[in-house]
Please model this.
Amino acid sequence: MSSQVEKTKKPFDKKKWRTKKYSNKQKFQDWDERRKKAVIRDYYKELNKSGNERPLDTLNYEANNLTKQQKRQNPHKEAQERYNQIQEEKKARRLEASKKKEEIQKALEEYKQKKRLKNKKLGKKTKKGQPVMKERLELLLEKIQASVNS
Model:
């Protein structure tokens, strides 16, 4: 009995089953694998029809060797490049934020200037303390012209 290998049933892994059944990432990976296999199968069918041998295996072998060599250069260099890239992104964000802040400041200053002029015109009084209507009419005319133009 000990020479026989006892087959034990693996416990049910609900997490693995759930990802296989519902995960879009898993479904996409499965679909991608099936598509690649189908392409390779069709390629071999074409080779069999034409009577050529299978050079795809040698191509895959060479491609794997190249990717393994190019895969990992120098971890320190990669980390340095990543750090530099992050620093450049931070600098760009800071510049963008400062430009935005300057634009807001400029717009606020223009708004305050217009408001100051408007209040100055509306605040003018005659000798008897009555408001000067000429300034008020000019403001109304400007408002009407701006609404007609836009």
Notes: The helical segments are 14-22, 24-50, 56-71, 75-122, 133-149. DSSP finds five helices and no strands in the chain.
